[in-house]
Amino acid sequence: MNLPNKITISRIFLIPLFMIFMLVPFPFGDINFLGTTLPLAHLIGALIFIFAAATDWLDGYYARKLNLITNFGKFLDPLADKLLITAALIALVQLQLLPAWIAIIIISREFAVTGIRLIAAGDGEVIAASQLGKLKTVAQIVAISALLLHNWPFQAISLPFDMITIWIATILTVLSGVDYFQKNKHILLKSK
């Protein structure tokens, strides 16, 4: 187990902690900062999410720098991303901060891509994330972070940054999903 893979696994272990702060009704109260009222527990949850998401960059950096890129890491890293994103989307729907249909589109794409990865892995093939897939992940992280922070600080200037970015993330999710299926249709054709 190398350092990048340990960092990736730590991202997975942060998910339950994130969910606790987002969904358990702690009596911490609210904070009001620059025109946005935000439950303190949600701020803590958002910071955990942002930290966990940042570990995605960190594990990739160390994997490349130390030449520790492994098939296990290529499989585990996107899986950890999908688990984190899925948990956040479900929490946002539960908190009524995100329409369920957007979460369904994003989660469905993630399941479909993971399914193709599993089929490929069964054939001894590992599919690394594409550049469009990486851009999609960044857009999702930015959008989810804005939603978790209740659109802070943009609420103060009445800019719906959270909704703008979730639309961008949803569009990139669909486009990257189509691109992924087109580039890997040979895997589906082999499995028939």
Brief account:
The chain is mainly alpha-helical and 192 residues long. Helix content is 74%, strand content 4%.
Descriptive report:
The protein is mainly alpha-helical and 192 residues long. The protein has one domain: CDP-alcohol phosphotransferase transmembrane (TM) domain (Four Helix Bundle (Hemerythrin (Met), subunit A), Up-down Bundle). Helices cover 74% and strands 4% of the residues. A two-stranded antiparallel ribbon has the order 1-2. Helix 1 packs parallel to helix 3. The longest helix has 26 residues. 33% of the residues are buried. The model has no long low-confidence stretch (mean pLDDT 89).
As residue ranges, the low-confidence spans are: none
**How many helix segments?**
7
Distance between the termini: 35 Å
Q: Strand share of the residues?
A: under 5%
State the order of secondary-structure elements, H for helix, E for strand: HEEHHHHHH
Average pLDDT taken over every residue: 89
Query: Strand order within the widest sheet?
Result: 1-2
Overall CATH architecture? Up-down Bundle
